[in-house]
Amino acid sequence: MKNLIQEEKEVTHDSGVILNSVLPRRSFLQFAGAGAVGVALMAAGCSKDKDYVGPTDPIVPGENKVELGSGDNGILNYALVLEQLEAAFYTKVVESFWSGISEKERDFITDIQLHEIAHRELLKNVLGDKKIGNLAFDFSKINFSDKNSVLNAAKDLEDLGIAAYNGVAPLLKSKDALLTAAKIVSVEARHAAYIRETLKQNDFASGVVGADGQDRALKPSDVLSFAKQYITTEINASNLPTA
Amino acid sequence: MNFLNILNEIEKVDAEIYDRISPRRAAMKDFFSFGKKVAAASVPLAVGTMFKKAYGQSASPAAINALNIGLAIEHFSAAFYSRGFTDAPFGAASTAAADKAAIGIIRDHELGHVKFLQDTIKAAGGTPVAAPLASSYDFTGKGEFSRPFQNLDSFLKIAQGLEDVALRATKGLAEDLMGSPFLTAALNMHAVEARHSTKIRLIRISRGLSGSLQPWISLNDETDARPGQGAYSGEENVSQLGNTITGINGNSSVDAARATEAFDEPISKAGLKSVLAQFNVII
């Protein structure tokens, strides 16, 4: 939790950069009503016919869940789930690197952490008041002092991120959003290859890239059911576009 | 050509293939009744017809053209890695066998891309561009890279640039594939090019010849002798969707280098044309 609180401080809003519509977190909470009213509003918005649904903020006491919404914003919120997850994971890694880590590994993994933070913050800014709140994570399955434990988790997360973007990017209606997703997914693939090579030589594509030379594309339901092992916030992805 | 394989291949990248096909009963009926009567050699034609019906108008001329640009790059990549695998001097270094194996893996992926794109373009009713004779390519990039198949560092430099340009090209072409069933396939392949680029970069880093080279494109990789003029122009961009990524939302550790690394940029068609022309690759 310490991490998340720290990150929260780091991302205070810089008026020069952010869309005007973004409210600082505190006022957003006040605005959302932090309780029954907010939830009722969300429920009322849950019709599949609506162009956009949500968000709710998981920080609302007792309501540790988010609604990704629909349309392009829903897909971007889904991407924000993945980027929050990756950024939180690497922040833990960087805070307590395994012992014996080489200087190069330290540099490159710190780079990866900062790439993921850049992705997360961009998505937050683009979504503005449509963005989901901060998710809660549980990384207790990972032994952060063990190189293999960390890198195997990283490998799965990076491979998953690629497959997630590939699975939903074609459903985006905005060409700018599509281009941005494409700009991000190849960087995730670079991360995946780096992590895999750090674990095992020539493992940059094995098991996920077939003889046809294609990476995977997965549906949100498959991605989220895997990601659930680390995300304690309940995620409603049922309004995402499917075609 | 194995029809079930094609369906399988397409299903991997378009989970809705069967949904696309099955509601079109007429298309399926045509296909199966036709299929019974024809010899196996005619199946590709029938498959193409069925896909055209299943996907309707989704294979626009722009989409076919985008796939063919991809195919032209893949033809070159396949020729480049095939020759490199055989001829490049991987040397006596302790990693030589592993490096050669890596080039073999990459070559196989590129051959897979060629085949996939050829099948896909045909299935969509287009004509795949033919592979030029390998001897028509200029692997030296108009003399910029000396003796690439005799000098491993030259070879790796071209390989890195080629992977990065190929994936940047896909981003530039993605818009043309919007709304077509081929966008997922293009993205899937382009993620693999990124894996390749990083692998090549790591080999170069391990050879200790590349200074500050990183597993990702940092700024515009100016510090590295450029693999291909113009291959990286535009990569120095730090602005995404109207947001300055450098120091975004108070995260001061996201410096300009990290801001550029976090996003791979597209290359324009004109830029792509000029980089490829160096190698006599015509698009």
Kindly summarize this structure in a few lines.
The complex is a heterodimer of chains A (243) and B (283). Chain A has 243 residues and is mostly helical.
Q: What is the helical fraction of chain B, as a range of percent?
A: 55-70%
Task: Please state the structural category of chain A.
Answer: mainly alpha
Spell out the helices and strands of chain B N to C: HHHHHHHHEEHH
Give the radius of gyration of chain A.
18 Å
Largest sheet of chain B: 2 strands, antiparallel
Parts with pLDDT < 50 across at least 5 consecutive residues of chain A: 1-54
> How many H/I helical runs of chain B?
10
Query: What's the helical proportion of residues of chain A?
Result: 40-55%
Strand content of chain A: under 5%
Topology diagram in text:
The complex is a heterodimer of chains A (243) and B (283).
Chain A: H1 2-10, H2 25-32, H3 36-44, E1 65-67, H4 71-95, H5 103-127, H6 147-168, H7 175-199, H8 220-227, E2 234-236
Parallel strand pairs in A: 1-2
Chain B: H1 3-13, H2 17-21, H3 25-37, H4 43-55, H5 61-87, H6 96-123, H7 152-177, H8 183-206, E1 239-240, E2 243-244, H9 256-261, H10 269-277
Antiparallel strand pairs in B: 1-2
Structure explained in plain terms:
Chain A has 243 residues and is mostly helical. Chain A contains eight helices and two strands. Chain A has helices at 2-10, 25-32, 36-44, 71-95, 103-127, 147-168, 175-199, 220-227; strands at residues 65-67, 234-236. In chain A, strands 1-2 form a two-stranded parallel sheet. In chain A, helix 4 (71-95) runs antiparallel to helix 5 (103-127), helix 5 runs antiparallel to helix 7 (175-199) and helix 6 runs antiparallel to helix 7 (175-199). In chain A, 49% of the residues are buried. Chain B is globular and about 50 Å long. In chain B, helix 3 packs antiparallel against helix 4 (43-55) and helix 5 (61-87) runs antiparallel to helix 7. In chain B, 57% of the residues lie in helices and 1% in strands. The longest helix of chain B has 28 residues, at 96-123. In chain B, strands 1-2 form a two-stranded antiparallel ribbon. The relative contact order of chain B is 0.12. The two termini of chain B are 27 Å apart. Chain B is an all-alpha fold and 283 residues long. In chain B, strand 1 and strand 2 form a beta hairpin. At the A-B interface, helix 5, helix 6 and helix 7 of A face helix 1, helix 6, helix 7, helix 8 and strand 2 of B.
